[in-house]
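Continuing the series of single-chain predictions for the mutant panel. This is the parent chain; the variants come on the following pages.
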Amino acid sequence: MTPTEASMDALRDVGDELADATVAALFERGEVGTFNTLMRYVSTAGAPLPDGLPDVAREYLNATSAPPSWVDWAEMEKARLFFIDNNVHISTALSFSSMPACYLVPHVAKLLSATHGLKYPSKRMAETGQFTVHLMQPDAFEAGSRFIPAAQKVRLLHASIRHHLGRENLWDVGALGVPICQEDMIGGQMFFSMLVLDSLHRLGIHMSTEGAEAYSYAWRVVGAMLGVDQEAVPKTLDESRRFLDLYMIRHMGPSPEGVHLTRQLIDLYEEVVPGTFFDPIVSALIRYLVGDTCGDWLDVPRTPWDTVVKSVPHLLGVLETIEDRSPSAPGPWTASATSPRSSNCPPSPAAASCTTPSPSTSRRTTASPPPRPAPAAGTRPPPRSPVTSPPTPLTTENVGEEHPRGLVDCSLSPRAAEMRNAVATGPGGGMADALA
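Parent structure:
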């Protein structure tokens, strides 16, 4: 599936029919207060719904109480192990790349400002991080988990924002499309999946194609539970790359709201960093991950640390290699030198970076236990015992620096390169460095 300007335009006119209808009915019947009060008691999957919950809300919660029937649980387990192995790096990418990227889309920054959601950025960051942690738990989709109720509430929150902005006439649908439309929801999914993978590579983190695909797949499952149209969402890394490129080219740019939100985010991070000496590293890391052009759009301060932070990938790369080869590691991530090139890479010279790594660049794992049978379609996975070691040997790869976006990108299509060059704003600027 190749996204086009026309297909992306069509997605701007669509919200989330189920959640929107639920919220509209709650407002029409004057049941919003009751709903909000009782929803505080809905926090774990499978728990009885509170008495007095409005019927329309009960119907919505029952309809969205299970993951999609097409979920591949083996792939979700790979994603969980990928997250466990890279959780600190993924959190860094989410905080210093994905969040600022949201502010690079002017209409998204405008929406966030209009709903006052980021006057308290620490709450937003905590919720985002906790949402990801809930997703990557072994029992994320089982009774007693917190992920499904969290996803249900986020979906209704989005619908509430659409309803509020429309009712108060605070949003120009003709010019901006439906607030939190399908294009933006898929774009957000790309920010939290593909952009994270890009940032991991930029930070020098060793990844495998298999791990990257699994992590992206997990966010596709999240998107489905948040109301993303599965007919429109990218299914592969290559499709995701094309969607993300086009989405960013269509929408990225400077805005007063983006600058304001970024300043709030930087202030928050600097409060977390002890003392003041290391405060500039916050701005330097954001600028390094989003690129100088986007950093300028967001008014991210330039500091002497801008040069220092460029050494981080080399340092992390060395540490990763030491970790990979450490005798204390559970064992090598074995990989055959004759394995075929990953199928997600298009045939191009740059795709040479997607060949299987030699044992010297492989990561660690333990032997695989007998596979657990997959659950029947439409059912939750069986209960799992605590996992203390990876149950599947996932091969990994240390991608060469000559490919700025690594195995997740494989190569840049001529059309994407042409579009990037068309929006460049100066030597070394524009999308080329913003997305590198």
